[in-house]
Amino acid sequence: MTDRRDFIKTLSLAGTSLLLPSPFAAASINPEKTVPNYLSKYKDLYAKDPKAASLAWFNEAKYGLFMHYGLYSIWGRGAWVQLFEKTPVAEYRKLMNEFTARKFDADFITDLALESGMKYVNITTKHHDGFCLFKSAQTDYTSVHAAAKRDLVGELNAACQKKGLGLFLYYSVAADWHHPYFPAKTAGWQYFRPDYAQPQPEYRYKTEKDAERYTAYVKAQLRELVTQYDPAGIWFDPVRGLYARPDLFPMEEFYREIRSLSPHALVSFKQGATGTEDFAAPERKAASLADQIQSDFGAESAALAKRVWEAHHSKHNETCSTLQRGAWSYEPEDNDKRRHLGVQEVMDLLADAKSRNMNLLLNTGPLPEGDIHQGDAETLRKVGKLIG
Protein backbone atom coordinates (compact mmCIF):
# COMPACT_ATOMS: atom_id res chain seq x y z
CA MET A 1 0.00 0.00 0.00
CA THR A 2 1.39 3.41 -0.97
CA ASP A 3 2.49 5.64 1.90
CA ARG A 4 -0.24 8.19 2.59
CA ARG A 5 2.13 11.18 2.62
CA ASP A 6 3.66 10.19 -0.72
CA PHE A 7 0.20 9.56 -2.19
CA ILE A 8 -1.07 13.04 -1.29
CA LYS A 9 2.05 14.55 -2.87
CA THR A 10 1.38 12.51 -6.00
CA LEU A 11 -2.20 13.79 -6.12
CA SER A 12 -0.98 17.37 -5.92
CA LEU A 13 0.67 16.85 -9.32
CA ALA A 14 -2.27 15.05 -10.87
CA GLY A 15 -3.74 18.15 -12.44
CA THR A 16 -0.64 18.67 -14.59
CA SER A 17 0.26 15.05 -15.34
CA LEU A 18 -0.71 13.09 -18.44
CA LEU A 19 -3.39 10.46 -18.02
CA LEU A 20 -1.93 7.09 -18.94
CA PRO A 21 -4.00 4.40 -20.70
CA SER A 22 -5.88 2.16 -18.31
CA PRO A 23 -4.41 -1.34 -18.08
CA PHE A 24 -7.81 -2.78 -17.25
CA ALA A 25 -10.04 -0.81 -19.61
CA ALA A 26 -12.35 -2.48 -22.09
CA ALA A 27 -12.87 -1.23 -25.62
CA SER A 28 -14.74 2.03 -26.11
CA ILE A 29 -18.50 1.62 -25.98
CA ASN A 30 -18.95 3.92 -28.97
CA PRO A 31 -16.16 3.30 -31.51
CA GLU A 32 -18.26 4.67 -34.38
CA LYS A 33 -18.77 7.98 -32.53
CA THR A 34 -22.54 7.77 -32.72
CA VAL A 35 -23.80 11.03 -31.25
CA PRO A 36 -25.90 10.58 -28.08
CA ASN A 37 -29.34 12.11 -28.42
CA TYR A 38 -28.73 14.83 -25.83
CA LEU A 39 -25.64 15.95 -27.80
CA SER A 40 -27.35 16.08 -31.21
CA LYS A 41 -27.00 19.88 -31.30
CA TYR A 42 -23.23 19.42 -31.06
CA LYS A 43 -22.81 16.65 -33.65
CA ASP A 44 -20.18 18.48 -35.71
CA LEU A 45 -18.05 19.18 -32.66
CA TYR A 46 -18.66 15.64 -31.41
CA ALA A 47 -17.19 14.20 -34.60
CA LYS A 48 -13.96 16.07 -33.87
CA ASP A 49 -13.84 15.95 -30.07
CA PRO A 50 -16.56 14.13 -28.05
CA LYS A 51 -15.35 15.56 -24.74
CA ALA A 52 -15.43 19.12 -26.06
CA ALA A 53 -18.99 18.52 -27.25
CA SER A 54 -20.00 17.27 -23.82
CA LEU A 55 -18.46 20.26 -22.09
CA ALA A 56 -20.13 22.68 -24.51
CA TRP A 57 -23.47 20.99 -23.81
CA PHE A 58 -22.92 21.03 -20.05
CA ASN A 59 -21.98 24.71 -20.07
CA GLU A 60 -25.28 25.54 -21.77
CA ALA A 61 -27.43 23.04 -19.85
CA LYS A 62 -27.66 25.25 -16.72
CA TYR A 63 -30.21 23.17 -14.80
CA GLY A 64 -30.65 19.53 -13.82
CA LEU A 65 -32.85 17.28 -11.67
CA PHE A 66 -31.21 15.32 -8.84
CA MET A 67 -32.85 12.37 -7.04
CA HIS A 68 -31.82 10.54 -3.88
CA TYR A 69 -33.72 7.26 -3.78
CA GLY A 70 -32.97 3.96 -2.08
CA LEU A 71 -33.79 1.67 0.83
CA TYR A 72 -33.53 4.63 3.21
CA SER A 73 -36.54 6.22 1.47
CA ILE A 74 -38.80 3.57 3.00
CA TRP A 75 -38.12 4.75 6.55
CA GLY A 76 -38.10 8.45 5.66
CA ARG A 77 -35.42 9.35 8.20
CA GLY A 78 -32.65 10.41 5.86
CA ALA A 79 -30.16 8.74 3.55
CA TRP A 80 -27.71 8.28 6.44
CA VAL A 81 -30.20 6.45 8.66
CA GLN A 82 -28.23 3.19 8.72
CA LEU A 83 -25.19 5.00 10.08
CA PHE A 84 -26.87 7.37 12.52
CA GLU A 85 -29.23 4.74 13.96
CA LYS A 86 -26.57 2.02 13.84
CA THR A 87 -28.95 -0.37 12.11
CA PRO A 88 -27.32 -3.81 11.82
CA VAL A 89 -26.34 -4.76 8.28
CA ALA A 90 -28.64 -7.80 8.18
CA GLU A 91 -31.61 -5.83 9.52
CA TYR A 92 -31.13 -2.98 7.06
CA ARG A 93 -30.82 -5.44 4.19
CA LYS A 94 -34.32 -6.74 4.98
CA LEU A 95 -35.66 -3.46 3.57
CA MET A 96 -35.09 -5.02 0.14
CA ASN A 97 -38.27 -7.01 0.77
CA GLU A 98 -40.22 -3.74 1.10
CA PHE A 99 -38.52 -1.90 -1.75
CA THR A 100 -41.18 -2.19 -4.45
CA ALA A 101 -40.56 1.12 -6.29
CA ARG A 102 -44.15 0.58 -7.43
CA LYS A 103 -44.67 4.23 -8.37
CA PHE A 104 -41.23 4.93 -9.83
CA ASP A 105 -42.11 6.21 -13.29
CA ALA A 106 -39.19 7.14 -15.53
CA ASP A 107 -41.50 8.74 -18.10
CA PHE A 108 -43.10 10.96 -15.46
CA ILE A 109 -39.69 11.95 -14.09
CA THR A 110 -38.23 12.84 -17.47
CA ASP A 111 -41.38 14.69 -18.55
CA LEU A 112 -41.19 16.66 -15.30
CA ALA A 113 -37.56 17.54 -15.97
CA LEU A 114 -38.42 18.81 -19.45
CA GLU A 115 -41.43 20.79 -18.23
CA SER A 116 -39.19 22.33 -15.58
CA GLY A 117 -36.66 23.59 -18.11
CA MET A 118 -34.00 21.06 -17.11
CA LYS A 119 -31.51 19.49 -19.50
CA TYR A 120 -30.29 16.54 -17.46
CA VAL A 121 -31.09 14.14 -14.64
CA ASN A 122 -28.88 12.64 -11.94
CA ILE A 123 -29.83 9.66 -9.74
CA THR A 124 -28.15 7.86 -6.85
CA THR A 125 -27.11 4.58 -8.46
CA LYS A 126 -25.38 3.61 -5.19
CA HIS A 127 -25.52 5.74 -2.06
CA HIS A 128 -23.48 5.28 1.12
CA ASP A 129 -25.58 2.29 2.22
CA GLY A 130 -24.24 0.39 -0.80
CA PHE A 131 -27.65 -0.51 -2.24
CA CYS A 132 -27.67 -0.29 -6.04
CA LEU A 133 -30.50 0.82 -8.32
CA PHE A 134 -28.97 -0.86 -11.36
CA LYS A 135 -28.25 -4.31 -12.75
CA SER A 136 -24.89 -5.49 -11.45
CA ALA A 137 -23.04 -8.77 -11.69
CA GLN A 138 -20.91 -7.71 -8.71
CA THR A 139 -23.59 -7.94 -6.02
CA ASP A 140 -27.17 -9.02 -5.38
CA TYR A 141 -27.71 -5.92 -3.23
CA THR A 142 -29.70 -4.22 -5.99
CA SER A 143 -33.19 -3.15 -6.99
CA VAL A 144 -33.17 -6.04 -9.47
CA HIS A 145 -32.98 -8.51 -6.57
CA ALA A 146 -35.27 -6.51 -4.27
CA ALA A 147 -39.07 -6.70 -4.28
CA ALA A 148 -39.09 -4.25 -7.21
CA LYS A 149 -37.20 -6.65 -9.49
CA ARG A 150 -36.42 -3.68 -11.74
CA ASP A 151 -33.35 -1.93 -13.13
CA LEU A 152 -34.40 1.61 -12.24
CA VAL A 153 -31.31 3.20 -13.75
CA GLY A 154 -31.95 1.32 -16.97
CA GLU A 155 -35.53 2.57 -17.12
CA LEU A 156 -34.47 6.15 -16.46
CA ASN A 157 -31.69 5.89 -19.02
CA ALA A 158 -34.10 4.71 -21.72
CA ALA A 159 -36.47 7.60 -21.01
CA CYS A 160 -33.62 10.15 -21.02
CA GLN A 161 -32.26 8.86 -24.32
CA LYS A 162 -35.70 8.97 -25.91
CA LYS A 163 -36.32 12.57 -24.81
CA GLY A 164 -32.88 14.07 -25.31
CA LEU A 165 -31.95 14.48 -21.66
CA GLY A 166 -28.46 13.83 -20.35
CA LEU A 167 -28.16 11.29 -17.54
CA PHE A 168 -25.53 11.60 -14.82
CA LEU A 169 -24.99 8.69 -12.49
CA TYR A 170 -24.24 9.45 -8.84
CA TYR A 171 -21.93 6.85 -7.27
CA SER A 172 -20.81 6.72 -3.65
CA VAL A 173 -17.17 5.69 -3.82
CA ALA A 174 -15.74 6.85 -0.46
CA ALA A 175 -18.48 5.35 1.72
CA ASP A 176 -20.12 1.93 1.53
CA TRP A 177 -21.74 0.52 4.66
CA HIS A 178 -22.50 -2.83 3.05
CA HIS A 179 -19.43 -4.00 1.14
CA PRO A 180 -17.46 -6.48 3.29
CA TYR A 181 -14.06 -5.04 2.40
CA PHE A 182 -14.74 -1.33 2.60
CA PRO A 183 -12.30 0.34 5.07
CA ALA A 184 -13.19 0.40 8.75
CA LYS A 185 -13.59 3.55 10.85
CA THR A 186 -10.07 3.02 12.14
CA ALA A 187 -8.79 3.71 8.62
CA GLY A 188 -9.39 7.41 9.14
CA TRP A 189 -13.01 8.64 9.00
CA GLN A 190 -15.74 8.16 11.57
CA TYR A 191 -18.34 7.70 8.83
CA PHE A 192 -16.58 4.90 6.97
CA ARG A 193 -18.72 2.50 9.03
CA PRO A 194 -21.62 2.84 11.51
CA ASP A 195 -20.43 2.76 15.13
CA TYR A 196 -21.87 -0.65 15.96
CA ALA A 197 -21.71 -1.92 19.54
CA GLN A 198 -21.14 -5.45 18.25
CA PRO A 199 -18.96 -6.57 15.32
CA GLN A 200 -20.95 -7.15 12.14
CA PRO A 201 -20.30 -10.61 10.69
CA GLU A 202 -20.72 -9.19 7.19
CA TYR A 203 -17.66 -6.94 7.61
CA ARG A 204 -14.36 -8.67 6.75
CA TYR A 205 -11.96 -5.74 6.41
CA LYS A 206 -8.89 -6.30 8.60
CA THR A 207 -5.94 -4.58 6.95
CA GLU A 208 -5.53 -1.86 4.34
CA LYS A 209 -4.62 -4.56 1.84
CA ASP A 210 -8.26 -5.63 2.01
CA ALA A 211 -9.30 -2.27 0.54
CA GLU A 212 -7.97 -3.49 -2.80
CA ARG A 213 -10.96 -5.82 -2.99
CA TYR A 214 -13.27 -2.84 -2.71
CA THR A 215 -11.25 -1.03 -5.38
CA ALA A 216 -11.75 -3.96 -7.74
CA TYR A 217 -15.48 -3.89 -6.98
CA VAL A 218 -15.69 -0.18 -7.81
CA LYS A 219 -13.80 -0.62 -11.08
CA ALA A 220 -16.14 -3.42 -12.12
CA GLN A 221 -19.25 -1.42 -11.25
CA LEU A 222 -18.00 1.66 -13.07
CA ARG A 223 -17.50 -0.47 -16.17
CA GLU A 224 -21.08 -1.69 -15.79
CA LEU A 225 -22.49 1.81 -15.39
CA VAL A 226 -20.64 3.20 -18.40
CA THR A 227 -21.15 0.24 -20.75
CA GLN A 228 -24.77 -0.48 -19.81
CA TYR A 229 -26.06 3.10 -19.79
CA ASP A 230 -23.58 5.31 -21.72
CA PRO A 231 -24.20 8.21 -19.30
CA ALA A 232 -23.42 11.89 -19.69
CA GLY A 233 -21.09 11.42 -16.75
CA ILE A 234 -20.26 9.84 -13.39
CA TRP A 235 -20.78 11.98 -10.29
CA PHE A 236 -18.81 10.79 -7.24
CA ASP A 237 -19.41 11.29 -3.50
CA PRO A 238 -18.59 11.72 -0.54
CA VAL A 239 -15.53 13.91 -0.85
CA ARG A 240 -14.81 14.03 2.89
CA GLY A 241 -14.17 10.31 2.86
CA LEU A 242 -11.72 10.84 0.03
CA TYR A 243 -9.89 13.63 1.87
CA ALA A 244 -9.65 11.41 4.96
CA ARG A 245 -7.67 8.75 3.09
CA PRO A 246 -6.96 9.63 -0.55
CA ASP A 247 -4.50 6.73 -0.77
CA LEU A 248 -7.36 4.24 -0.30
CA PHE A 249 -9.35 5.55 -3.27
CA PRO A 250 -7.36 5.59 -6.56
CA MET A 251 -9.54 8.17 -8.25
CA GLU A 252 -7.24 8.75 -11.22
CA GLU A 253 -7.50 5.05 -12.04
CA PHE A 254 -11.28 5.28 -11.86
CA TYR A 255 -11.31 8.38 -14.05
CA ARG A 256 -9.07 6.70 -16.65
CA GLU A 257 -11.39 3.72 -16.70
CA ILE A 258 -14.43 5.89 -17.38
CA ARG A 259 -12.71 8.00 -20.01
CA SER A 260 -11.27 5.00 -21.82
CA LEU A 261 -14.72 3.47 -22.11
CA SER A 262 -16.58 6.63 -23.11
CA PRO A 263 -14.89 9.59 -24.82
CA HIS A 264 -17.77 11.92 -24.00
CA ALA A 265 -18.46 10.95 -20.36
CA LEU A 266 -17.76 13.72 -17.87
CA VAL A 267 -16.41 13.14 -14.36
CA SER A 268 -17.08 15.07 -11.17
CA PHE A 269 -16.38 14.63 -7.45
CA LYS A 270 -17.84 17.46 -5.35
CA GLN A 271 -15.09 20.05 -4.60
CA GLY A 272 -12.62 17.77 -6.36
CA ALA A 273 -10.40 14.79 -5.58
CA THR A 274 -7.51 15.29 -7.98
CA GLY A 275 -8.25 18.51 -9.85
CA THR A 276 -8.59 16.60 -13.12
CA GLU A 277 -12.38 16.35 -12.89
CA ASP A 278 -14.32 17.98 -15.72
CA PHE A 279 -16.22 20.14 -13.27
CA ALA A 280 -16.67 20.61 -9.54
CA ALA A 281 -20.09 19.98 -7.97
CA PRO A 282 -20.12 21.30 -4.40
CA GLU A 283 -23.21 21.50 -2.24
CA ARG A 284 -25.15 24.68 -1.60
CA LYS A 285 -22.66 27.47 -0.80
CA ALA A 286 -20.09 26.06 -3.22
CA ALA A 287 -17.06 26.83 -1.08
CA SER A 288 -13.73 25.19 -0.39
CA LEU A 289 -13.69 22.61 2.40
CA ALA A 290 -10.02 23.20 3.22
CA ASP A 291 -10.60 24.77 6.65
CA GLN A 292 -12.94 21.99 7.73
CA ILE A 293 -10.59 19.34 6.35
CA GLN A 294 -7.71 20.93 8.28
CA SER A 295 -9.69 20.49 11.49
CA ASP A 296 -10.83 16.96 10.69
CA PHE A 297 -7.85 15.37 8.95
CA GLY A 298 -4.82 17.65 9.23
CA ALA A 299 -2.66 19.91 7.13
CA GLU A 300 -1.79 17.52 4.29
CA SER A 301 -5.40 16.67 3.50
CA ALA A 302 -6.33 20.35 3.81
CA ALA A 303 -3.60 21.30 1.34
CA LEU A 304 -4.96 18.72 -1.09
CA ALA A 305 -8.50 20.08 -0.67
CA LYS A 306 -7.27 23.61 -1.33
CA ARG A 307 -5.24 22.68 -4.42
CA VAL A 308 -7.96 20.70 -6.13
CA TRP A 309 -10.62 23.33 -5.41
CA GLU A 310 -8.42 26.02 -6.93
CA ALA A 311 -7.88 23.80 -9.98
CA HIS A 312 -11.58 24.15 -10.77
CA HIS A 313 -11.80 27.95 -10.57
CA SER A 314 -11.50 28.41 -14.33
CA LYS A 315 -14.08 25.72 -15.16
CA HIS A 316 -17.83 25.88 -15.61
CA ASN A 317 -18.98 24.11 -12.45
CA GLU A 318 -22.18 22.97 -10.80
CA THR A 319 -23.76 23.53 -7.40
CA CYS A 320 -26.28 21.12 -5.92
CA SER A 321 -29.09 21.92 -3.53
CA THR A 322 -32.34 20.33 -2.45
CA LEU A 323 -36.03 21.19 -2.62
CA GLN A 324 -36.62 19.99 0.94
CA ARG A 325 -34.70 21.92 3.56
CA GLY A 326 -32.11 19.81 5.36
CA ALA A 327 -33.04 16.61 3.53
CA TRP A 328 -31.69 14.94 0.41
CA SER A 329 -33.83 11.82 0.57
CA TYR A 330 -37.53 11.82 1.45
CA GLU A 331 -38.48 12.82 5.00
CA PRO A 332 -41.93 13.76 6.32
CA GLU A 333 -42.50 17.52 6.36
CA ASP A 334 -43.20 17.74 10.09
CA ASN A 335 -41.54 21.09 10.87
CA ASP A 336 -40.06 24.18 9.23
CA LYS A 337 -36.63 22.56 9.10
CA ARG A 338 -38.03 20.07 6.60
CA ARG A 339 -40.34 22.29 4.59
CA HIS A 340 -40.19 22.29 0.79
CA LEU A 341 -38.99 25.31 -1.14
CA GLY A 342 -41.34 27.54 -3.07
CA VAL A 343 -41.05 29.00 -6.56
CA GLN A 344 -39.21 32.19 -5.59
CA GLU A 345 -36.68 30.28 -3.53
CA VAL A 346 -35.87 28.07 -6.52
CA MET A 347 -35.62 31.13 -8.76
CA ASP A 348 -33.16 32.60 -6.26
CA LEU A 349 -31.06 29.43 -6.40
CA LEU A 350 -30.98 29.59 -10.19
CA ALA A 351 -29.97 33.24 -10.12
CA ASP A 352 -27.22 32.55 -7.59
CA ALA A 353 -25.84 29.67 -9.66
CA LYS A 354 -25.88 31.80 -12.80
CA SER A 355 -24.04 34.62 -11.02
CA ARG A 356 -21.22 32.20 -10.20
CA ASN A 357 -21.08 30.65 -13.69
CA MET A 358 -22.49 27.38 -12.39
CA ASN A 359 -25.25 24.96 -13.26
CA LEU A 360 -27.87 24.19 -10.63
CA LEU A 361 -28.54 20.54 -9.81
CA LEU A 362 -31.76 20.59 -7.79
CA ASN A 363 -32.69 17.55 -5.73
CA THR A 364 -36.02 15.98 -4.85
CA GLY A 365 -36.33 12.88 -2.69
CA PRO A 366 -38.80 10.41 -4.23
CA LEU A 367 -41.34 9.00 -1.79
CA PRO A 368 -41.00 5.41 -0.47
CA GLU A 369 -42.69 3.87 -3.53
CA GLY A 370 -40.73 6.03 -5.94
CA ASP A 371 -43.24 8.74 -6.87
CA ILE A 372 -42.24 12.40 -6.84
CA HIS A 373 -43.46 14.69 -4.05
CA GLN A 374 -46.50 16.49 -5.46
CA GLY A 375 -45.50 19.88 -4.08
CA ASP A 376 -42.02 19.60 -5.55
CA ALA A 377 -43.44 18.68 -8.95
CA GLU A 378 -45.80 21.67 -8.90
CA THR A 379 -43.01 24.03 -7.89
CA LEU A 380 -40.70 22.74 -10.61
CA ARG A 381 -43.35 23.13 -13.31
CA LYS A 382 -44.08 26.71 -12.23
CA VAL A 383 -40.38 27.54 -12.34
CA GLY A 384 -40.19 25.95 -15.78
CA LYS A 385 -42.86 28.32 -17.07
CA LEU A 386 -41.04 31.32 -15.63
CA ILE A 387 -37.68 30.49 -17.17
CA GLY A 388 -39.26 29.58 -20.50
UniProtKB/TrEMBL annotation:
GO-annotated biological processes: fucose metabolic process; glycoside catabolic process
Annotated ranges, domain Glycoside hydrolase family 29 N-terminal: 41-385
GO molecular function: alpha-L-fucosidase activity
Keyword Signal included in the entry's annotation: yes
Keywords for this protein: Glycosidase, Hydrolase, Signal
Coiled-coil segments: none
Enzyme class: hydrolase
Keyword Hydrolase: yes
Cross-referenced InterPro entries: FUC_metazoa-typ, GH, Glyco_hydro_29, Glyco_hydro_29_N, TAT_signal
EC identifiers of the protein: 3.2.1.51
Pfam families: Alpha_L_fucos (PF01120)
GO CC annotation terms, alphabetical: lysosome
Signal peptide from the UniProt entry: 1-27
General function of this protein: Alpha-L-fucosidase is responsible for hydrolyzing the alpha-1,6-linked fucose joined to the reducing-end N-acetylglucosamine of the carbohydrate moieties of glycoproteins.
Similarity field: Belongs to the glycosyl hydrolase 29 family.
Protein name as annotated: alpha-L-fucosidase
